[in-house]
User: What shape does this take?
Amino acid sequence: MHFIVALFAFSIVCGIGRVESSSPPDGPRLAGDVAVARLSVSDSAVEVATPGPDGNPDSDAQAAEQGAQSAQQSGQQGTQTSATDATTKLPVAKPVAAGPVDANGNEIPLERRQPTRILGFMPNFRTVSGGAKPPPPSWKYNFNVATHQATDYSSFIFLGLTSLTAEGLNQHAALGKGVDGFYAYNWRGFLDKTDNTYLSAFFYSSLLHEDTRYYAFGQGHSIPMRILYVISRQGVARTYGGHQTPNFAGLGAKVTTQFVSRYYYPASASTFPVLATKFGYSVMRDVIFSSIREFYPDLAAHFVKKHREKMERLAAKDAGDDGSADYSEGR
Assistant: This one.
């Protein structure tokens, strides 16, 4: 009996030893130790907690819940910021026009664009492009424009041609022929032209507040209507406010010029019929030049477009030839 009890006690002691020897040396020593695992899922953090040192897992669970709520709020704020950025419209820079612009800042098409010089030499300083907003007229502005036009080199070319024609046709026999006759016509013609320019473009227009610049009618109207418009501009001008008014400045300048010319032309060239004829020539000359100003942009735009189309066809042809050559070389 004693032998059986001793054998049973020995077996218990051996079992306990095997249990202790099978336990890992770094295993958990206390029931209150904590193991915290953190998992990162996309942009938010989720914490899984086991009992802490105080044996209460609720505090860690609450901390984990607060962390998840904070991450969710951060994600919502980021989404709202992204949505705000996506819906915010940044100002778009307006492209810079390559040519003159109208009153709204849009580029004026070629068909309505008036050059400073027609054909590169004919002065066109007092013509306004269709839709353009020109500088406001004033005493200073009008004087500068009149001076620019009266002293332009092209004016002396036209003056020489008209003087040569008048001398050749012997319009005023008292002025003579040859070089002396040409000189007599030339300096008198210069006074006529300069007087008319300063009186119409500067003095009378500034005094009466009339805008005597030529505002082109432009495309969108029939040719007969445009011709009638050109003719009507001899008798109709604009006020500084843009309203229609009789062209007192233009017509008054022509009359005054013919009256003053009586003091430097021979008596035979100062009679009323002669002065009336010269007045008529002056009006007809203005109609011709205004017609050129009215229709020149149409002709210029037509030739420019034809030239561009030709260059595009040549470029397309060159590109096709280059492609064919590359294909041949590849074969």
User: Anything to note?
Assistant: The longest helix spans residues 272-330. The helical segments are 2-22, 58-87, 139-150, 153-169, 178-208, 223-232, 248-260, 272-330. The first strand starts at residue 37 and ends at 41.
